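Final report, closing paragraph on structural work. Over the funding period we assembled a curated collection of sequence-structure pairs, and we close with a single example.
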Amino acid sequence: MFVGKRMTRTPVTVTPEDTLLRAGDLLHVHRIHHLPVVTQGNLVGIVTGSDLRNFALKKAAAEIAGEAMVAGRNVGDIMTRDVVTVSPFDTLEDALLLLHRRRFGGLPVVEGKRLVGILTKADILAAFIDTLRIEEIGVRIEVILPQSTKAIQKMIETLGAMDLEVKSLIVSPYQGNFAAFVRISTIDVASVRKRLRAAGFSVPELDHFLG
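Its predicted structure, as stored:
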């Protein structure tokens, strides 16, 4: 899945000449946390709610101390100029890893220097909710499998023989085996567990992965 498929294509933006008051109003009205700063469509910086709060604190501290007011009234005075970005052709996994490692909440999406969108943690969360089909009726079960594609295929065929639709499947290494997390189109999880065990699969109890 690529960034271009899940990004917000028409992000709210400001220019370097916009006032900090306008930037704050836009963040509040649109309930967002990041404002790409553009000049003629090209990304030149980014300003966040944290930037505005930090500036306000510095200004208040200066006034209390009787010092000169902290300089800066426009977005260009406080924006981050060295912006970390992604491309529409980057994967969501790579973007998520970048957000996690840099502790960002959003990433401007650019082609060359031109801003084409913004990708936030909320966008990625929505993408994974859609991919895993979490909002649809169904349940998730966990099955321990040998590290073999044939074992995965057999499990899917067994579920298919029960007239169950596999809505999503996540497989990860687990103690020398595979742990398969399967979301299926039923609410009768007890019967599915029983049938899978009868077919020779290891289906742990709910607290198995909590130990």
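Helices lie at 3-6, 20-30, 49-64, 75-78, 92-102, 121-132, 149-161, 189-198. The longest strand covers residues 166-174. We thank the funder for supporting this effort.
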